[in-house]
Model the fold of this input.
Amino acid sequence: MREDTGQVHARPPWAVIAAVGITVSSAVLFLLGMAIELAGGGRATTIGWPVVWSVAMAFFAAMSWHGRQWGRTVLAVQAGLTWLLSAELIFTQPSIVDSVTRPGLVVGITLAAAIAQTLGAATAFTPPCAAYFRRAREQARLLSPRLRKAVLTVHVVGSIAWLGIITLQSALAAVARTVGNDVALLRSLYEAQYIVDNLFLGKTSFVALFSGLALALGTPWRLTHHRWVVAKFALTVTVMILPIVVYHPVLDRGYALVLEGRTADDVSSALGFWGLLPALGVSSLMLLVAAVLSMYKPGGRTRLGRGQATATAHTPGSSKPGTPAVVSEIHEAAADVVSLSLKHPGGDALPEWSPGAHVDLLLPSGLVRQYSLHGNPDDRGSYQISVLRQPDGRGGSVEAHRLTPGDLVKVSRPRSHFDLVAAPGYLFIAGGIGITPILPMVRRTVADNADWRLLYVGRGTRRMAFVDELCALDLDRVVVVTTDNGQSRPDFVRELGDLPTGWVVYCCGPPQLVADVEAAMARERPDGRLFTERFVATTRVRGEDTPFQVELRRSGKLLDVAADRSLLDVVRATVPRIDFSCENGLCGSCLLPVLDGVPDHRDEVLNAGERHRTDVIYPCVSWSRTPRLTLDI
Ligand code: FES
Done:
């Protein structure tokens, strides 16, 4: 198993703090307006809006604070809509259910809130904020799975409520056509439509719109990358506009006639045969189409989405973890370690693998991480991986710990550069979560009746996964060394000095443990076979290397590799379709064939005995010892 290190969470710059502060002040102003309205005898129809509006503002401001690009976008859209609402407050008379005249103070406060929100949204687009959001975007900080689920729930509930309200309005309008000369009932039906309209229609539509925007902008779907998302957004906006331009004028005209004491037939003939029903019917139909689009997601990518897909096809792992998988089971394997079972959503068999293999896991946020498979290779129905939670890492392990059964992820085909070779015996050495690739190797060795021994080092059995299972395999062959109770690290020099002839050593764990084993092996068994896998990359500093040239033999290109760039970046600029994933020298996916020159291997894939190879290079981290390196691409 590999994981990530490196603290990346940064305090937002002053401009983001200012943008969020101004926006929150705007929300407070709206609430103040509500309080004054309430004190002056205002009614629920007008009081509800500032509450919904303020909560939405605060939410989007909080999302902006956390670097969500979509947060500031929605904030800007909301600022525009705030002006529309303010204009309505100023230029319209109180409606029939809102009989209290608004005090000038409320209008003033509403205007001040609109100005403040516009300022806040504008500040969020200044260069310092843009840089902050760009950084956050690079770190793929999209909606967390838990938040995505919460927003999705709000969106589904809001959309259903919206459709239900339009259906109710349709029913009221249809009944109003049938009441004949019962003027009192006709008036009640029209007033009921006004009440439903004022209390619910606008609010549910805004809930559906904003939660939909948050889902589109806060997930890899994006707003403009898929045709179905664009179509659904257009339908939603159209259904929001229809009441303003069609439904409300007809309703107002009809109600004016009702107040004059006209009968249902008079009103119907004045409004035309269909009256209110066409706008409501079309709205219902559009919302149903939007629901179907959400379910079936037809149409593929837009041109922009295709361009983006091409541009990101070679970002870490973006093109490789292509098999959808559903999290079917989760259990705690040790303190801070969860084991996940992944299955194909349709129950299909997953690609085969052998002990030592790993997969790229594409998390819902778009992060890609590598994890060793440790289940049963003969079980093609599921993969098992285990994840150590690293709160100071780059976010992959924390997000993986947030997954719940039923969550969808993607996995790549299993890869391996840590295969179990045939040998008369094996010494396995594992440190911490490095036990994950070792576990299926031990099982396979037991099944093959081969000789073996395991040294398992950790900070305490509470934090060490699979100890019981390993001890149950053969207690005499497993040595568990826990450093938290005073036990010292195993003496690798002695262990390897005592190694029976022909035995092979497999080691996976933190870099220091692997380095100790490599040093002991070089001293005691220089001709022995040692296979290693580190689960974090060793630290590298760019910019201190000597620049060199890379010749791409098949493309006939000669390129300069500057000290502050990776060979992978330089080659990809000319040959974009190069496979890669971790960019840390861990996964082995970026392997390129070398024709001439001497590579300086800095990856964690090649073993000590393979570091002299001049026929391959892992360009994400490795360099050249010669002024020119010729690659067979
Ligand atoms: S991209 Fe993973 S080793 Fe190069």
Summary: The longest helix spans residues 183-217. The pocket of FE2/S2 (inorganic) cluster is lined by residues 580-583, 585-590, 603, 605, 618, 620 (CB under 6 Å). The chain has 17 helices and 18 strands.
